[in-house]
Amino acid sequence: MITFIVVGAVGLVVLLASIVVGDLLDLFDVGDGLVSGVALGAALSIFGLAGLVTTQAGLDTVWTYVVAVLVAAAALVLVQLFVRRVTRRESGGHWSPVGFTGTTTEATTPSGGEVRLDDVRELERRLAYSDAPIARGVRVRVVAEAGPRVQVEPVDAAGPVAP
After folding, report:
1. pTM of the entire structure?
2. The CATH fold of domain 101-158
3. 125: helix, coil or strand?
4. Which of 2, 15, 43, 75 has the fewest beta carbons under 10 Å from its own?
């Protein structure tokens, strides 16, 4: 029974931290986007809860673990599908910002930065990166997309701009 309590508690910590701080698995570069921290935390929490409930119901230890694992696996899949759906809807999901122009709102380097794009679908600033440092306030063009981040280059580096 202590195993279920510990795993459930760890799951709650992972779940709450992923909701408050952002996806912890992205911070540690784990999973390569396969599973979100929210889904993993929810599955661990549900594993603990299912284990406690089935233990209290008097199931044999083997069946307790089988039921807990099956319920946790189902929860992992369902929560991950929900997270992907919300993320796709949040980012628009069906269009690419490659080719959009905008302005850097923070200096942009290979490790990060921020831009505001001019397209009407872009309501918020985006995380961005560039091959070479770009100062704040410079006009840029998106040349690639990597998840929610975009790679940018100065507009004049992309060739002459028509007046």
Report:
1. 0.52
2. OB fold (Dihydrolipoamide Acetyltransferase, E2P) (2.40.50)
3. coil
4. 2
